[in-house]
């Protein structure tokens, strides 16, 4: 074998060796990754925190109808001004009053005769204005509800009692949920004799904030003349955090 042949064999052997090293490296990494994703166990945990709400969020609607678009909008504006003026008397600031929707739509009349196909004609116009307000004095919630209906609100859609800045409470509930999941993992380790490694996945879900559908209550309060405002206690909010923690099994 001459020198040239020896050189070629040397380089071929070197290339083969490099390929073999890469193959083993990829194979080992794949096995480790497979172990990380398949040799796992997942634990769930739940944490709850109770707290009194500090704000109420109220959604309501002013709906007006008239023969012309302008007349309907003028009537809506009059009621809207009366409602916002009332809210100011209750100490609700401008920043806590928001128009969340405004719509002008024609109202149609359709022919009821089966033998004549007539195009529908416009009989008038309807204006719908939606409001979203924040009430910070919860003791005043009933009075505000009754007052806006008396001032011209046709429909009260939803009242929701909330905690305005719940992040600290969420963190507290999350800590309890994680501690719950970890306690379960320790129990399983001792029961079946396994060793848990690093956490390879974490998920959480936050719940809470009850709401009230008070549409009919509001309309009854208005239609009842001197009827007492509906009693709507704010109660206590429960912030719940659920977590799932996935561990690698060593």
Task: Write a structural description.
Helix content is 41%, strand content 35%. The chain is α+β, with helices and mostly antiparallel strands. It folds into two domains: 39-52 and 165-208 and 236-250, Protein of unknown function (DUF541), domain 1 (Translation Initiation Factor IF3, 2-Layer Sandwich); 55-162, 2-Layer Sandwich (Alpha-Beta Plaits), CATH 3.30.70.2970. It contains five helices and eight strands.
Rg from alpha-carbon coordinates: 34 Å
Q: In terms of structural class, how would the helical and strand content be classed? A: alpha+beta
The CATH superfamily of the largest domain turns out to be Protein of unknown function (DUF541), domain 2
- CATH fold annotation of the largest domain: Alpha-Beta Plaits
Residue fraction in strands:
25-35%
Number of strands: 8
Q: List the uncertain runs.
A: 216-226
CATH architecture of the largest domain: 2-Layer Sandwich
Q: Characterize the largest beta sheet: strand count, sense, and whether it forms a barrel.
A: 5 strands, antiparallel
CATH class identity of the largest domain: Alpha Beta
Gap between N and C termini: 53 Å
Tally of contiguous helical segments: 5
* Widest beta sheet: strand line-up: 3-4-2-5-7
Overall pLDDT score: 83
List the helices and strands in order: HEEHEEHEHEEHE
Range of helix content: 40-55%
Q: What is the count of structural domains?
A: 2
- Shape summary: elongated
